[in-house]
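Worked Example 4.2. Read the sequence first, then its structure tokens.
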Amino acid sequence: MNSASNSERVAFRTCPLCEAGCGLAITVKNNEVTHIRGDMQDVFSKGFICPKGSTLKQLHYDADRLLTPLIKRNGVHVPATWQEAWQVIETGLSGVINKHGRESIGTYLGNPGAHNLSSMTFNRVLLQAIGSRQRFSASTVDQIPKQVSSGMMFGSVSSVPVPDLDRTQYLLMLGANPYESNGSLCTAPDFPGRLEAMQARGGKLVVVDPRKSRTAEQADEWLAIRPGTDALLLAAIANTLASDGLNVLEQRLHNYLNGLAEVVAALAPFTPEAVAASTGIDAATIRRIARELRDASSSAVYGRIGTCTTAFGTTASWLVDVVNIFTGNLDRVGGAMFSLPVAGSGNTHSAPGRGKGFRIGRGHSRVSKHPEALGEYPAAAMAEEIETPGDGQIRAMVVVGGNPILSTPNSQRLAKSFEQLDFMVSVDIYLNETSRFADVVLPPPSQLQRSHYDLALLTFAVRNVANYSEPVLPLAPGQLDEWEILAKLSAIVSGAGIETDPSVIDDLAISSLVQSAIKDSASNVFGRDHQELIAELSLSGRRGPDRILDFLLRTGPFGDGFGAVPNGVTLEKLIDSPHGIDFGALEPRLPEVLRTPSGKIEIAPPQLIADLARLLLTLKNKVDESQLTLVGRRHLRSNNSWMHNIEVLVKGKDRCTLQMHPDDASRLGVDKDSKVLVTSRVGSLEAPVEITEAIRSGVVSLPHGWGHTMEGTNTRVATARAGVNSNILTDEKEIDPLSGNSVLNGIPVKVTRISHN
């Protein structure tokens, strides 16, 4: 990076704002960002950019973005020095630990951490230093069902099959809207363009969604399913395929299946006729879709947040891959395939083809006994864990890059519970609806001041690529990088004291990583000298996430193995390739991708087979045509709750509306000028109405992440366009029992007209 302050330069980096991973070309003059456009030479995105990517400049220069720590004094947040902040944190956290024990500290990790190299490399360090099992994250209001089902089937939560978008001829998409969200658990810049390219080569796109989303508008066919019934539809598709005969299961795939007969038998009751009334999709259509998937030259089923945020999120996620298997398209070109991440993952470490497998329930939450999944408990359980007295009651919270007050169920109850905390620390760029409760707010640098590599997201990429970005702008004098903040917090909470330099924690982190790799017989550095590798890593002078990333790259599937593999990947090689390196299209990975004890795909995990009995019971429920159910939605210019303070993204007409079908509006006496009261079991809110035929009758929709009306925040643009918080209506008691994921779709509500706007 050219550091001359009086020159114009173009910096290339990957956009960190969503999962697409688009390349940006950022013009900088006199160390000021002047223009952001798509990087035409990026090997993955080839110039594509969405409206959010171009606003990194506005985000960096946002007058409300925090630049110094805040300490709450007499109920008001005031600026403080870092030293003052660390002292308050040490006193507050050690006081709670000494009085109530480490289990009294809860943590919540927010969604932006998945796009953040510092968080990906140092959040685990922080969690280990805290030493509490009271861990929560945005995962349980998002993708965790898919990772749980993948772990059960393939032995690793990293083994999430992704649709081979660039080569498939038929894509069945459930609960996803990539024209607005750019895709998720499927990293694919210009997802819409890839879909249109599939259609241009004669392929077919079928979208299953209660709303006619922008993606459904582009689809060749839209199936307006009843919310929360995706698992029933998928079970019926699988049932049809099994009834027709699974002759498409080529020997290659058949040899790697464990439990095929068991899953076929368990799916027998789920005929298309049996599920038609519940799903709202007729039996003939279900059979036709099943056979089109099977008979296409290549096909894939892709399910996303709409399938995950239901009472059967894990079961639906499993059935997505059951159908991919039954059509013969798992691990096949044009089907659902496994990425080979350049920096490695859980399915590239240890001996290939077999492993310890995956399980849930290694612990249970204190109050409602929810099983642990991926080392955490349901975010929906946070309030009761804070409110309920007894050993292990949460008395302090550490929140990193999250806003659960807007993003998790029954927000009003959670907000009241946060008021009861003895102490709270928040790492955040804003004083928002959650960080307003913090005794100390620690501000990380902006996205333009950090290095970047999509350590998590490239695990689910539709091509094997690697893009590293150096910081575009320097840190200000005295400003700490985010990894330094997390390392310092780790030192304090572990009892090492506020004088501990972050480099001490950094050295421990890299040492642990190297020690683990040299003991792995499948690693390209197996048996090497620990100190020798540390010394070679340190030659560059890199610290923190960059040093860790260098090690992960060099020991990854394409790495140089510290000299063992000539021309292998290093961080230096990525720095010399600012537009990224493309390692090619996805290739079949069976059986080496498996990490199950059997060395086979566990197509019939006992917990999921058992959950089919619960699913079967739903068929006995008579459909109430008068009951309205609430679903969420995404908009292209919005990203959860934290990008609403950028004027260019929120300007224009109000998008925080309750969408409603004309038939429902007529029945309830609601017109386009009405304001309505929406009520669920847990709360009520008022919202303006948007009447549209682009939603199924009986379904209403509110977007996620709004409701910026709370006192004590400082996000002026967001407050001026506050919207309403849909999570006032979502029910913390409704969760997927296998993964702990919240039910955010299919919430029963009552809608009453209250006035004209």
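Now turn to a second chain, presented in exactly the same format:
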Amino acid sequence: MNGSLKIFSGRSHPHLAQKIARILDIPVGKSHVTRFSNENLMVQIDENVRGADVFVIQTSAPPVNEGLVELLITIDALRHASAERITAVMPYFPYVRSDKKDKPRISITARLMADLLQTAGADRVLTMDLHAPQIQGFFRVPVDHLQAIPIIADYLQRRDLSNHVLVAGDASEAKDVGRYANRLRLPMAIIDKRRYDDSEQAKAAHLIGDVRGKHAIIVDDEVATGGTLMEAAAFLKEQGAESVIAAFTHAVLSGTAVERVDASVIEQLVFTDTIPLQGKESKKFEVISVAEVFAKAIRRIHKGDSISDLFH
């Protein structure tokens, strides 16, 4: 890419954007957002971006819908300011769980998000650990899909893993947990859980594998309300697990999730900073930054180098 590299940040996670920019040794681009009395937003780019290779960092965090609209307006403003290429950097993709039509007369909203981003003028998307990797197929522009497995696995390897077992919260997560198992050379167990109604709570029914006398590590892509996680942790203790920790990419932590974690048998919750904590605190939290892997990906995209080499 011949144009200069520029990083702009939305208001959802400026701290992460600043960390990425520092690693790249460039400043965060100048822009500002005006919110009018009628709740309309205006985004103004306060520097020249003509011919530039621009990356806009905006994750999905409360208020989700306002953050999304802000991102779309920012991309449109950059397009009309003659940026050469615009990449939407979305560490946590909005509406990522709405990836299929599993009920009548509903929207496949993740597909709608893809359409909106492309209509606004995004030339490509950079994201991490999509709940359903096939969401990449919703786009007609390139999507670079980063993985948090290497950095979370590296963190877990700091402890003695000789008597540990990785646990998939349900059968659908087994493939992803298998990647951790291969990297960490640990055995796996799978919780067979059942969801009997429309609530977000699922019930653990059976365990495939053995956790008795072992230290269990529950691995998943995200934790939302924490209900399913608490159920899984309690179930593992009932099955004889010596201790339970959990590792996730995206810490949504909605509702009373923090209080649930604090009151649970889980000893530690490890997750990345794809989503800002926004004041949520617990002594059990351990946060790992994804800034370096995003900075490396941005540099490679800008130079036209391979992204897949990051995960070898």
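Notes for the reader: The longest strand covers residues 215-223. The chain has two domains: 5-146+291-311, 149-288.
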